[in-house]
Amino acid sequence: MNEVKTLGQFIIEKQADFPYAKGELSRLLRDIGIAAKIVNREVNKAGLMDILGQTGSTNIQGEHQQKLDIFANGQFIKALTSGGECCIVASEENEDIIVIDSPVAHNAKYIVAIDPLDGSSNIDVNVAVGSIFSIYRKINTDAPATIVDVCQPGKQQVAAGYVVYGSSTMLVYTTGKGVNGFTLDPSIGEFCLSHPNMRIPADGCIYSVNEGNYVHFPKGVKQYIKYCQVEDSTTNRPYTSRYIGSMVADLHRNLIKGGIFIYPVTAHAPQGKLRLVYECNPMAFIVEQAGGKATDGLNRIMELPVTELHQRSPIFIGSKNMVDMAERFMHDA
Ligand code: AHG
Ligand code: MN
Ligand code: MN
Ligand code: MN
């Protein structure tokens, strides 16, 4: 077993990649790692705590909030507030941005957008869930942070990552210089480097889409799904369908094995379901940095203009050649 490298050691080692940084981003990633460990602890024993089920409240998305949604949200906000490196938190679970104006954060220059718990519908049935984060630099360092600092296109992200609470718990992130994965070692309570320089295969044999919405899919998506199902041994078809309802878990599998994840517009979600700021953009940054592709079926996700915090977008993301093929069906439809 080669030498153990913790997330903290890795971050400090890589800090040399950012000559202008004076450690703030490193401390911010550390703060996120701490929150992830606390959320992991509750996820792992959720059945033994009064933390399963719904809270009875509804979030801005119109979703019934799960107790673990609220717990995770609180932990990330607490870690980001006390860490002092973040001036705004934007969360799926909060209608408006949270401006952090504590003395310790008075010259903080980073904005963090979070999906504190992704795949909430899976919590009570013990299926993998995740957390997603996206980090921007404040646009005008001399002025107080506002919603304008949050509504930046995805290509302005400084860093992005996710935690997947699965058979093991992993934290995967990028700062624009590749993608690295860390596995939580519960015996020492540290995320340890386990997947250095992650690359998504250019081709894959897995397609991930909720085919329950098939009837209302755009024509190009229907045609692409049929293409995935046709027998053709020269292109390894039919592909395998894998979809578990947690974007983080579905994308993590496809990142490692190759595959495409599609959440197109549907009758119920005419703009798409997934949120641009704290789901699509961070996952697009990671997948692009691993050599993959992420579009809305036509346009690069990270170029899409961001006009409001909870804006939604269709998303086609994963192995480059598979996204290219799906886009051809969308274009020709
Ligand atoms: P969240 O739990 O953060 O609201 O996100 C759920 C998302 C995403 O994780 C998943 O891919 C998608 O919802 C599943 O949607 P459907 O159940 O409509 O397929
Ligand atoms: Mn939700
Ligand atoms: Mn989500
Ligand atoms: Mn969520």
Automatic annotation (TrEMBL):
First-level EC class: hydrolase
Chain residues that bind substrate: 118-121, 210, 243, 273
E.C. code: 3.1.3.11
Cofactor note: Binds 2 magnesium ions per subunit.
Keyword Transport: no
Keyword list, A-Z: Carbohydrate metabolism, Cytoplasm, Hydrolase, Magnesium, Metal-binding
Domain Fructose-1-6-bisphosphatase class 1 C-terminal: 200-330
Domain Fructose-1-6-bisphosphatase class I N-terminal: 5-196
A Pfam family it matches: FBPase_C
Cofactor(s) needed for function: Mg(2+)
GO annotation, cellular component aspect: cytosol
Protein name: Fructose-1,6-bisphosphatase class 1
Organism: Mucilaginibacter conchicola
